[in-house]
What does this fold into?
Amino acid sequence: MSNAALLSVEDVAVDLPTARGNLRAVDRVDLALGAGKTLGIVGESGCGKTMLSRAILQLLPKKAKLTGRVMFDGQDLARCSAETLRKLRARSLAVVFQDPMTSLNPVLTVGTQLIETLQEHLELDALSARRRSVELLAAVGIPAPEQRLTQYPHQLSGGMRQRVAIAIALSCEPKLLIADEPTTALDVTIQAQILDLLAREQKRRQMAMILITHDLGVVAGRTDEVAVMYAGRVVERAPTQILFKQMHMPYTEALLAAIPKLDTAPHTPLPAISGRPPDPTRPLKGCSFAPRCRYAASRCEAEKPLLASAETASHQYACFHPIKLAAGVGA
Amino acid sequence: MMQQAATSPLLKVENLVVEYVVGNKIVHAVSDVSLGIARGETLGLVGESGCGKSTLGRAVLQLRAPVSGKVLFDGENLTAMQGEALRKMRRRVQLIFQDPIASLNPRRRIGDIVAEPLVIAGVKDAGERQDRVCKVLNAVGLDPALVMGRLPHEFSGGQCQRICIARALVLNPEFIVCDEPVSALDVSIRAQILNLLEEMKTRFGLTLLFIAHDLAVVKAVSDRVAVMYLGRLCEVGPSEQLFARPAHPYTALLIEAIPVPDPDVRPAEHVAVGEPPSPIAPPSGCRFRTRCPRGDQKCADEVPELRAVRPGQYAACHHPLI
It folds into this structure.
């Protein structure tokens, strides 16, 4: 599968110069995603998940320094010209951001934004671009699509705006869609609708998708594989089923335990993770999670654990004291 | 659990109506809401954004004047109070907001921020103020010696929320309205703050109105839960019972929409249809009927009253799920 990967992120690191010194936002991440597959990237704010997605899209802040390779469809994006990137981002690589109000242009109507995209990138004439826009809006579940074309983003609700943003992202039939916290700004009932919509379109179009979120609940039923990030690194990576059933990384376990569940009785104290993530400008010598980890030993503070394979090569974790590791399994 | 208090709730809201005027239109933010909170109880208030839950929280504290209805706190009608009497009463009630960083003045030191309520309440002795600030900072898990001289930007979101909680507690209030206190925080920090609120509640004998949109968060801390939709109460009941056996279709829908962190639980296929209508022109009859799988003509014609469906559980629905 990996030889046919649509996207492969190889040893990618992102460094940001700040007033307090160098900030390593993404620390040597390796990921691969096959065509038509869904990868969830989970982590708390500041863990580098958004920076990683920006590194993939080559939309990093100007001062940021990227090392490593981002191979997409046979090309190294980090070495592509601005023009090639523009074309790729238009046709094959699409993105949906958290806040649809800031990703849509407030002074252009929905129609203008959609029709323009289609005319520019698919070279459709005005009439067919318009027809296609109506189809797209209908496909993402917007009622009365003809009328919506004449409306401005501020006239739509948050959920509708996100649907429009998804329609624009899907308009050129991308091979890869990156959805960066697409539902965090939305209500639960709308969140469920948007996640269903993304899953449906992803299947229908055989599109690969990266779903970035802080909510393990969002990735559980909707991804093929999950990567958990902490302090810039991928600390555990596994097929979704295996990650939730046989997690090895204490951080994954703690993150899952800290979520309030509907089936626990009221007033049950939550197993909170003590402390907070380390200062990214002051990297720790050992495991970044060690100061908050209940399994941490002296080795964890002295040495950084590398991502190593568990029972299968598709399950990797970075921990010296993994949870529930069955006897006899090491390599 | 709280039978003794059932006779005289600490807070009682009666037929409260709050409206905003926007241009020449009226936003029906809270329409005819009645509820009671017993002393020592936590009432969770859930609903989607724009359902009026924050407005209700503010109207309870008289930060927003209601159009009609009453708010009784410990037997006294807050809506009829003004000036000094209201200010005195407000010392017994406090508010914690969603965005902890935005609710702290960025140019003041933590010691002064937490002492401010004491200054307003007229505690003249600086030594006493210092004492009480230290005590309350310790209680929320912050070291007064390290914290008091620093500015809000030096703290993370979770720590800022601890400071906000300390500020709310410094006057020893009886009742606190928590308006989405953890929704701006990360998962790992959220659990810390929820545990802290629970601990403070027991330690200081507080009564809480806990407003949130996340049902699982609400369930974790609440004795009873009230569900709001478009300005009206849909359902009220004991947490466990309400989540196990929701009677109002809207409650059921909210529960179904929560993403479950378990890959074996397939996401519900046909969750909520559409979006909430505008509170400027809410639907006639039952306001939820436009999204309800059970909506019919009766729902359009008649506003459903809150009726007992099970002991302690009330639903405003013509076709409850029982």
Notes: The longest helix of chain A spans residues 188-205. Chain A touches chain B through 49 residues (CB under 8 Å).
